[in-house]
Each structure stands twice: as structure tokens, then as C-alpha cells.
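FORM 7B: Structural annotation worksheet

SECTION A. Query
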Amino acid sequence: MLRGRWIGMLVLCLVVAGVFAWLGQWQLERAIDTDPPPAGVTEQVRPLADVVEPGAYLPEPLVGQKVETSGTWIADDFLVVSSRFNDDVEGYWVTGQLRVAERTSIAVAIGWTADRAVAEAAVEKLNAGDAEASITGRVISDEGPSVPPKDDPQRMDRMSTAALLSHWHDTDALDVYRPYLASTTAQAGLTDISSPAPEEQSPVNWLNVFYAVEWAIFAGFAFYLWYRLAKDAWEREVEEFDDAHAAGESA
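SECTION B. Predicted structure
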């Protein structure tokens, strides 16, 4: 094991193990959030513009943040979204385009109902009602569009800003928020949307901890591999020496 090539391989293993150890430390540093958001921070109502910008993705710690905003409903853009659950009961959301600034809009889930006819009646009431609105609710990430069933091509089963945008009016040069706003208070005879506070996130990312442990195992395996190869070579040389010595004695 003290021969030049094995010492060279040991040095190489030390370098490889050092790289693995650095990667493990890097993963471990990112596994623990040293500055987690305070408990209950999502329940403090903040202005929408302070939480997310139009066109930007909603950062993970801010999903479910309570926000407030005001604007103007765009007529004829109140749409029904299916497959919405309130406390495990399937139903519908009535949604609308709220113009919160000049050429800037956000999709708002206004309320829930288990009856499609009630949802359609709410759409008529909203179209005939006051255009000015002040909304408080939770800002939630876009769910992404889905393919509608063939027998109902206008049906929407996902709360997708992109899908709603394709049905909205007056959208030329329009800035749109990627997430949507789930109103805490329903309108037009609808039921309040069940939207509990998001669970507090653990400051420890266990996936990163697992990766850090993996890098430590890889570092240890580098040394074990060197030891196993060197030992096998040494045992082979000892065996060859014994065979040669035995052959010399028999001669």
C-alpha cells in the first residue's frame, strides 16, 4: 500500500472525497432555512402589488398570502369554472376579470356554489351590478389549463389565468397577473370559498439533507474503493510470493 501508485491513488481519492464533502456541505447549507417567514405571516393582509408583480411567478413562501386590491370588473368576463371543491363538496366557482390598474388585470374567484344554475344566475347579477370592487383574498398559483371534454369545449375544470384570458374581452396590450385571487367574501348569492391558511413550512428541507448524506456516503466509498483495491493487490502479491517460495522449496 505504500507503493507509489497506491499513494497516488490515495491522493486522488482525497481530492474526490474533498469535492464530495464540499457538495455535501453545499446541500446542507441549503437544507436549513436560517430566516424562515414568521408564523402566521400569510394571514397579514398586504397590498397585492407588494406581494407579486404582473407576469411574475408567485414565490413558494407567498402562496396563500392574504392580499387586498381594488379595481373595476370587466363586463361579460364573469366565467364559471367547474370541479371546484368546498369542504369536499364538488361545485363551481364564478370568476371575473378585475382591472386593478391601467391595462393590468388579475383573475378573481368570486364565490362557490354546488348548483350550476346558481352560478349562471350569479354571473347575470355581477354583470348587472356595480363595476367598482374592493377584494380581499388569498393569492394562489395558477393551476395551468386543461383540455376540455369533447361534448363541452367551453368547459373549464382548472383555475387557469391563461385559459380565462382566452375568453376575456379588451385584452390588447394587457398585463396579467399569473396567480389568481380567491376572494374571502362571496358576492351575488354565492358561498364563501373555503380557503384555509396554508400549513407552516418546516425550516428544514429534508430532500437536501438526504442529498448531503448521499455525498458523505460517496466520499466514504472513495476511500473504501482505494482500500479494497490496494488490499486485493497486496493479497495477490503475498499469494504469488508464497507460491514462488513453495515452488523453490519443492525444487
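SECTION C. Observations
Residues 30 and 208 are 7 Å apart (CA to CA). The beta strands are 46-47, 65-73, 79-86, 89-101, 104-113, 132-140, 175-176, 180-183.

SECTION D. Sign-off
Analyst initials: ____
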